[in-house]
Amino acid sequence: MDVNIDPSWKAYLENEFTKPYFKKLVAFVENEYQTHQCYPEASDIFAAFDYCTFDNVKVVIIGQDPYHGPGQANGLCFSVNEGISLPPSLQNIFKEIESDLNESISKSGNLQRWAEQGVLLLNATLTVKANQAGSHQKQGWEQFTDTIISLLSEQKEGLVFMLWGGFAKKKGKKIDRNKHLVLESGHPSPLSANRGYWFGHRHFSRANTYLTQLGKDSIKW
User: Which CATH number fits domain 7-214: 3.40.470.10, 2.60.120.10, 3.10.150.10, 1.20.58.220?
Assistant: First the structure.
C-alpha cells in the first residue's frame, strides 16, 4: 500500500508512518488487497485527506467503516460514487439537511463537494473486505485515525466535530471541547433514526452558525 497522502497532511504524519503499528497495518492491507476484493479502490484509501487539506478543515464527520458493496466506497465516509443508489444512512442525512435548512439539496451521493469546502469525511477504519463489514477493524486503522483527531484538536481551533452514534462518540474523547464545537446525536442508520435518535438535532445549521460567528465561510450542504 502506497501511503500517497496529500502533502499538507504528510508534514504532520511522517513520524506516524514509521511506527511499528503502521508498518504492520500496511503489510496487512497490502496482503488483503492482493488476495481479496477490498474497498475502496487502493487509490482512494486516503481520499478524505486529498479532497480536504489540513489547512482547509472546518468540519469533521466521523464514520466507522467504508461501504462494503460493489462500487460504493470512494474513501469519504457516508459518500458513494456517482450513479450508485443512496444507502439508507445517507438518505437520512439528506432528509435531515433538507428539514434543518428548509431547502432542497443535491441528490448526488458523492460528498466530494463537501470535502472540497473543508469537511473531513473520516472513517475510523479506512478499508474493508467485500461484503464483510468490520473485517479490517482492530488492525491499526483506529490508532491512526485517533491520531488524526488528536492532531486536529491540538493544532486547530474552532472546528466542528459531528459525532453520530456510539462509535463516533467514543472517538470524540480525543477532542478538546473548550476549543471546538462537538455535536452529538444517534447514528443516521434506519435502526437509530427510526427510534428518534437522529432527526431534529439540526447539526448542519448549528455548524454553519458557529462557523459564521468565527468569520469562516459556511458549508453549502
Answer: 3.40.470.10
